[in-house]
Amino acid sequence: MKQLQFHFDTNRPIYVQLVAQLELYIISGALPPGERIPSVRDLAVMAKVNPNTMQRALTELEERKLIFTERTNGKYVNSSPEAIQQNRQKYACQRIREFTAEMTRLGFKPQEVIKMLKKEGKV
Questions:
Q1: Which domain holds residue 117?
Q2: Residues 54/42, Cβ–Cβ less than 8 Å
Q3: CA trace torsion 90, 5, 78, 41 (10° rounding)
Q4: Dmax over Cα atoms in the chain, in whole Å?
Q5: Nearest CA-CA partner of 56 in 28, 22, 84, 25
Q6: Burial (Cβ within 10 Å: 0-12, 13-18, ≥19) of residue 71
Q7: 67 and 97, same structural domain?
Q8: How confident is the model over 56-108, as pLDDT tens digits?
Q9: In which band, very low, low, confident or very high, does the pLDDT at 109 lie, cut at 50, 70 and 90?
């Protein structure tokens, strides 16, 4: 069984953080397409959360088409590269929006941010 690590903060609901962390495992390939994921109970133990909270997170991932359930066989990562890529793109765009919003709050203009990224070798 694959051992997953979970880290939580007190600023957001646990299930939201579970969704985000599991989503990142999937879109990064740490949980590869088609792989059977641990049971709800096993995941809850790994994350040290209530199984109901974990089930809520998994339901959200299923609604996003990142995982699917095979009756009596468990839950699996979606094996469709398109579904994974679509969610990966959506995730990246959200991180970019958060980053640019933070830079704007700090008073940076877009061109300044681009210049800094180039200087850091990130563009």
A1: 89-123
A2: no
A3: -130
A4: 54
A5: 22
A6: exposed
A7: no
A8: 999 999 999 999 999 889 999 999 988 899 999 999 999 999 999 999 999 99
A9: very high
Alpha-carbon 62 to chain mean position: 13
Angle at 22 between CA 54 and CA 96, to 5 degrees: 130
What is the tally of structural domains in the chain?
2
* SS (HEC) of 29-63: CCCCCCCECCCHHHHHHHHCCCHHHHHHHHHHHHH
Nearest to 24 by CA among 73, 77, 79: 77
Residues 52, 97, single domain; the answer is no
pTM of structure:
0.80
Residues 61 and 105 in one domain: no
Name the 3-class secondary structure at 88. helix
Distance CA 11, CA 14 (A): 9
Residues 38, 27: Cα–Cα separation, whole Å: 17
